[in-house]
Amino acid sequence: MKNMAKLAAMLATAFLCAGTAQAQETIRLGVSFYPFHSADDTKPDILDTIAPELAAEGYRVEKTVFLNYAEANPALAHGEIDGNLIQHELYMDIFNDRAGAELAIAQPVYHATFALYSGTYSDLNAVPDGETVFIPNDGVNTARALLLLQSAGLVTLREGAAYGASLADITGNPRNLKFVQLPLTATAGAYDEAGRTLAIMYPTFARSLELEGDAERLYVEERNDITDRYAISFVVNAKDLDDPKTKAVAQALRSDAVAEFLKEDYGWASTPAR
Hints:
By secondary structure, the protein is of the alpha/beta class.
């Protein structure tokens, strides 16, 4: 009888464990770059950080890596993944307009440290007449770069110019700066080849030149109502904003653990958005 009771208890435990494993629902999240995905398996990322909290809620994270981050939104819109972590609100809005999609921000995560870099000048006042500035060539980041230059006092934009600003919106350029527009991935290389005069870059790309922290940052983007919309965020289809999976991920991304991760492992490139 004792053996039968022991066997029954073992079977019951196995059944409960199997039930728990089966109860774990998969959350498919699209990622493309650090800190949401690390090519180094020994280096933890944010999804590793939130996995235990989500597991406690009955969810398992399945990471889908997009080498081309532009593929992550179509995959989300078509229901191939449950959410992604590759963009800010302005990028999302452009995709929605062009694709007729209805993606929405579920949770802002962090603000990338967007900055004007210079290895030549240590002060804005030292920038000479006619100097060249390398800036991103895509619409969203061109506007962001021009807004940064305006806040630094290097250019003036027409009244009302904001997220859609282009070179044509420059109304004042007292230093007669010359602008060279390049893809984000090419800016760091061009900046280096030109003698590190002036370039506006994200820290991820500046890191390719072994620049971390404040190294060669001449002017850092200010946080305000406009730039707050550039927070890299957790995005889902609008119809899924109230889905329990969405709420679980959003809550985990607001945790102290994520804030600490950003501070300790990505502080050179970001500030938490929560």
